[in-house]
Design a protein that fits this description.
Blueprint (H helix, E strand, L loop, with lengths): L16 H19 L1 H26 L4 H36 L1 H10 L1 H9 L2 H21 L1 H37 L4 H42 L5 H12 L4 H14 L4 H27 L7 H15 L1 H21 L1 H13 L4 H6 L1
Helix pairs in contact: 2-3, 2-7, 2-8, 3-7, 3-9, 4-6, 8-9, 8-11, 8-13, 9-10, 10-11, 12-13
Amino acid sequence: MATPERQSKRVEITVSARTIATVLGVIAFTWAFVAARQAVLWVFIALFLAIVLSTPVTWLQQRGMKRSSAALLVVLGVFAVFGMLGYVLVSRFVTAVRNLIEDLPSIVESIRASDLFQRIDERTDLGTELQHRAESIAADLPSKLGDVFEVGGKVFGLGLGALTISFMTLFLVIDLPNLSRSLHSLLYPRESARIGGLEERITRTIGRYALGAVVIAAIAGTVQGTAAWLIGVPFALALGVIAGLLGLIPQVGATLAAIVLSLVALTQGVPQALIMLGVCVGYQQLENYVLQPTIQGRAVEISGFFVIASVVVGAELLGIVGALIAVPLTASAQIVIRELTAERRRRVALAHSESPPGAGEAGGG
């Protein structure tokens, strides 16, 4: 008896027009995001600054000032302070940094002449490598500074970007309550209350952390720059500004500043380098145990590992801007995750409290 032939099955894959439109929309959005990444970065910075400045604006608003007037006063005040600092410090700072770079070969040579570094130099090629790098940087400086049109174009671009970010920040600070009300109008009362609590906690966290970081960085730059000037370290102004800027980077910034200042102080002698290192280490302890808890309080409650990891990832994605804003953004994400998992954590805690002692061991046996 002949066996019947098995009928072949035909498989059809249908793709709806909606799916195709969704895929094309995602591709178009990704292309637009990549093409306009500079503008997106400006918007992101403006939003971050608006959240930071919302705290003092709200404080002025609670004391009878209109929000638009308070926002204009705060934004203009911030940029006026930075403008005055730039006017006073930029020319001297640029000159000091240029002189520092030009003197790098002699600085490295002086460091290599010290007894401590000679012992290290005998076993490694570190000194030779540093000497070559210093000479290369110093040799490239005139060509970097010589192209007036290129430098002028970069300065103009930075000025245009700063002006654009300033106006976006001002309008965002004014419109934040309206944007929040628009969001809450789409939510049910329970969801609205939950989102409102998240907004308040995130704004308070970002604002407190950012403002505290600026204050602490200013103190760090002043203390370490003054100490460098008192013990006769060259380029004290430039080193103070560098220490302040590095102080904005959590965890690793103070250590990097101590290394830079101590190495430059080593050109004046081992005692000066040890004094500079002692000042940096002593200030770091003061910052960790006095300034940080007092100025920032418990603004961010995240572990040291996540602090460093967020800084590394932020720097890789957005450069120095990413490193500066990584910690408050990570703290904000932690707030959102805690809120989303709050109900489950309550149920798990209740289940553990109702479970009789030894139940787990008995079940496992």
